[in-house]
Amino acid sequence: MPPIRDKFVIHSKAVVCQDVDLKGDINIGPGTVVHPKAAIFALVGPIVIGAGCIIEEAVIIVNRRKDIMRIGDNNLFEIGCRVECPSIGDFNTISTRARVHNTVRMSNHCVIGAQCLVVPAEDETLAEYTCIYGPAADRRIWSGRGQVQEADLRMKHAEYLREMLPKFNRLRRSDGT
After folding, report:
1. Rg (alpha carbons) of the chain, rounded to whole number
2. Per-residue pLDDT tens for 104-144?
3. What digits encode the pLDDT tens for the residues 64-92?
4. Rounded to an integer, what distance in angstroms lies between the CA atom of residue 164 and that of residue 88?
5. Beta bridge partners of 70
6. What is the phi/psi pair of residue 10, to 5°?
7. Please, are residues 86 and 69 in contact by the beta-carbon 8 Å criterion?
8. How far apart (Å, rounded) are the C-alpha atoms in residues 6 and 143?
9. What is the layout of strands, in order, in the sheet containing 93-94?
10. Strands 130-133 and 138-141: what pairing?
11. DSSP state of 143
12. C-alpha 129: how far from its chain's center?
């Protein structure tokens, strides 16, 4: 396997801390916030991260497929989660220490609960508003109530982080600098 060539495209409005581990071909969209100690690895194919995402500490995002891994807009990756799914829609939440395998595709407004392990035997696409929770990874469909309030709260959260993180961390710019 040839060595991984690092190529980072970080939008000027994105906030990416200096001590983030980036490997491979990665494109980070406007307004996205990447906390220190996060790791994003495009081992085989590239990763494209949309606008307004929040990637917290110790998050690991890995693309092991040749296809482009697309992460939509306004997604929240909480502390210590590991995500390998090739397609993630918009407004999803992957909670603390959850793991999502590369056989899963997420649509919009899905929630993976804390410490849930989502590893289906064959390729699966989660329907919109799917919630996975509990130690047995039980599933249900969210009614969508409170969706506007959640979106507003996430926007305020991202705005606060874009203001505060540069005060206490050095930032990374495009092309590995």
Report:
1. 15
2. 999 999 999 999 999 998 999 999 999 999 999 999 999 98
3. 999 999 999 999 999 999 999 999 999 99
4. 27
5. 48, 87
6. -115, 120
7. yes
8. 42
9. 15-16, 33-34, 54-55, 76-77, 93-94, 111-112, 130-133, 138-141
10. antiparallel
11. -
12. 17
The answer to whether the pTM exceeds 0.90 is yes
Both tokens of 120, joined, read: 């289906």
Closest CA to 112 of 44, 174, 89: 89
59-63 mean pLDDT: 97
Helices (H), the chain: 147-168
CA distance 112 to 68: 22
Spatial distance between the Cα atoms of 164 and 137, rounded to a whole number of angstroms: 35
Q: Which residue has the tokens 């100690």?
A: 37
CA angle 81/157/18 to nearest 5° reads: 60
List the beta bridge partners of residue 28: 10, 49
Residue linked to tokens 């959850």: 98
Amino acid at 52: G
